């Protein structure tokens, strides 16, 4: 189905040249309700999900009582009702126009939780429905939007088939994954079909924060409190990058590029140098790891800003810039997490950084990684 | 039993004033064989362990084939045989005299694994035997040695009783714990009796790296390879500090001081600032946490050097000093891990740091924390 919206109305064309444009790498559209997915499901799965009163993919509710409105910004509900971020026009009014967006990279809300389900056939069917819904209701409505191929990674062969089915859509730029893996770590051989399909379709692999439960295991301690659990999110990222590096994934798939959003980034210097130390001492045990781990991180991985570290003491603020420079100013991508409550307004979150680094983080790094047009040179302006 | 060794022979008296002295916060003595513990066990437990051919506390073997000699330096076996670091005189010859030690803080090898055992009565009995053995065979042999109260933390009430039994020994300076907790996180209320006993006896609580298995749970990914597992060790430290802070332990026990050895330290800036961020946003959920998390870390916690981060690229070496300064040069303690293979020779590991910071890390910080005499002003010299 073709979009009926003209080029003039898309966010990219509206970019103001006197304000730094934004490429947001973490936006979570929702259907108005889960019934919107029905047209994209087979009769079998539509009846099955309807009969069992499926509650959708939103995570966490059964485990903990978390912040108000199940984590959605109260004001992200469109005037006509429905879930947060379930209206293209309201999203553009509330976010893309207000903050001078060039592009928004969409990752349908909480679909990374599909990979936690032991019902892998159901998860595979729902992932596929989400992709068709995403293309018809979002990507085709605005040419500045970019999409994520939703997959059920507990069946890597089916996941690869889904990547091949929709990954060639011109607005699809990444495969959307959970930072938790359903079995073993992301470095395990079982996931190779996913990386192969991503490389074959020229897609980045993007890992998003998720919640333990189902097939996803918690860390060494299951946090008792929400701020404790939020702080623990970064641990899973560290363990998975460690698994990917020592599993040899990036030696086998040298074209693979990975993005890690909503798990922070300030743990990266320690992780790189600790992996380097142990690799030097113990490389006899992993002879397939040829390049130093830190080099592999620098060549293959990018990181979202969310959550941004904010030291409590004024005298510690310089540490933020020091840490960003250790990682590389070209490795960090702006990620708002809209419509979730942690939303970072782009020009507020990075206000204390120098302008050249803000430009890199707000749009230049993502523009280069995803091959997007330069919003400052757009022909539409 | 009183020591028969004169004051003149202790390591402290032998400190050379022209070389920076060393206080080593991580030395692991072993019995020559586990039968050495028999005199300190009741008839019941001696017969029980003998009959079931108990293999001792050394961890890891059933889970992974790790480095040569089960992780002990090959040259740490005394000439007369036995386990690594099982002879006081050989330890002094190989380590304390050679590296100009003022003090060695002992933590009987792998006894932190006792807390992983579901047989908590057995673990409690063995912990107690280790303490009596440690006092008789090590502490009483050299007045420069300091000891750790070994406990079985899966029974916190019995553990507190053991701390009260031997914690007042003049050379006991800390309670020895595993970074893995047997149930829940270290922030759980169940462990309050341990912290109370530590404060009551004026002891630091020191957490040492351990191995998942038994009651200890692994992280979100159980690493497939040894360098991957070594890198994952730091994740458990981060999760446990997070649990301690948000559980309110340091608000309730304001005199408590904690040391974290063999889990690294370079992840700390990220952890402090991430906890601060989430505490500011979500403190309604943890009203008992009054002080910012980073302030609690700075007031209550110290960190061992082992493993020291070693960046692969020459141009990244300045990051090590930057990170140490973020944490505070007064918070890091030298830890060799003798007789384990990761042993860091004190003057090599820190060679690239400025002299004033090397002095802080090699002895001054530990001297202040543990209330040890200043080796440069020793009356014996």
UniProtKB/TrEMBL annotation, chains A, B:
Organism of origin: Niallia oryzisoli
Pfam family, one: Amidohydro_2
Name listed for the protein in its UniProt record: Amidohydrolase family protein
UniProt cross-references to InterPro entries, sorted A to Z: ACMSD, Amidohydro-rel, Metal_Hydrolase
Keywords from the UniProt entry: Lyase
Bilayer-spanning residue ranges: none
Domain (Amidohydrolase-related) ranges: 120-372
Domain of life: Bacteria
